[in-house]
Amino acid sequence: DAKTTQPPSMDCAEGRAANLPCNHSTISGNEYVYWYRQIHSQGPQYIIHGLKNNETNEMASLIITEDRKSSTLILPHATLRDTAVYYCIAGGQGAQKLVFGQGTRLTINP
Amino acid sequence: NAGVMQNPRHLVRRRGQEARLRCSPVKGHSHVYWYRQLPEEGLKFMVYLQKENIIDESGMPKERFSAEFPKEGPSILRIQQVVRGDSAAYFCASSGKGGTRVNTEAFFGQGTRLTVV
């Protein structure tokens, strides 16, 4: 699995868009980018994943650069409940053997 | 539709005892994964099982730890002769089988917090 690099922490005001960056410069052609989050020691929660096209679902948008070396997770209207550690994972297809790094601790401020 | 169910949520064991952690996957899921999260650290993969088979146990400690996913019943993570360093949160996840995209999301349980005293 490709190594990912994320900022250790970020702050965002409630109601604003939260943009979480991730670098995965060694990602290979068949590796997906997955995002999970962990709210206060609960089990991780799947957010979104993508291969090379931008993706959007009810939770977030995922923007992947054309060279696939980095991506950005966008939470369009952050709420206090979005405060969590966000993990960017670049790996083989499927849910197998996810490699969690240290993630980004996102704090949403009122 | 219940999600991944783990029990117990909290488990206290004395050093040298055995710990059994149970995980019932999402109904219909045949892939189960166990992860461990030490205090203030990220989650580490331990083992991946499909029904009655261990697919990848590269993250399992070589001794005292074992896992199974029988044809009937929940998946069990068993830790024999627990030591203080085993204190951690243990998370189970499951995913469905089938086509490529169907298998991409892992559903996690709420974890079992093991404390060894």
Describe the overall structure.
The complex is a heterodimer of chains A (110) and B (117). By secondary structure, chain A is mainly β. Helices cover 0% and strands 45% of the residues of chain A. Chain A has no helices and 9 strands. Chain A has a 5-stranded mixed β-sheet with strand order 1-9-8-3-4, with no helix packed on it. In chain A, strands 2-7-6-5 form a 4-stranded antiparallel β-sheet, with no helix packed on it. In chain A, a hairpin with a 5-residue loop joins strand 6 and strand 7. Chain A is globular. Chain B is an all-beta fold. Chain B has no helices and 11 strands. In chain B, the strands form 2 sheets. In chain B, strands 2, 4, 5, 6, 9, 10 and 11 form a 7-stranded mixed β-sheet that branches. In chain B, strands 1-3-8-7 form a 4-stranded antiparallel β-sheet, with no helix packed on it. About 4% of the residues of chain B have low confidence. The interface between A and B is medium-sized, with 23 and 27 residues.
Key features?
A: 110 residues; mainly beta; 9 strands; 45% strand; globular; B: mainly beta; 4-stranded antiparallel beta sheet; 0% helix
Could you write a compact summary of the structure shown?
With 110 residues, chain A is mostly beta strands. Chain A contains no helices and 9 strands. Chain A has strands spanning 9-13, 18-23, 32-38, 45-50, 55-56, 61-64, 70-75, 84-91, 104-109.
Give the N-terminus to C-terminus distance of chain B in angstroms.
36 Å
Proportion of strand residues of chain A: over 45%
Please count the helical segments of chain B.
0
* Count of DSSP strands of chain B: 11
Proportion of residues in extended strands of chain B: over 45%
Average pLDDT confidence of chain B is 90
Query: Please, what is the average pLDDT of chain A?
Result: 92
Oligomer: heterodimer
Shape of chain A: globular
The largest sheet of chain A has its strands arranged as 1-9-8-3-4
The residue fraction in helices of chain A comes out at: under 10%
Q: What class do helices, strands and sheet pairing of chain A give?
A: mainly beta
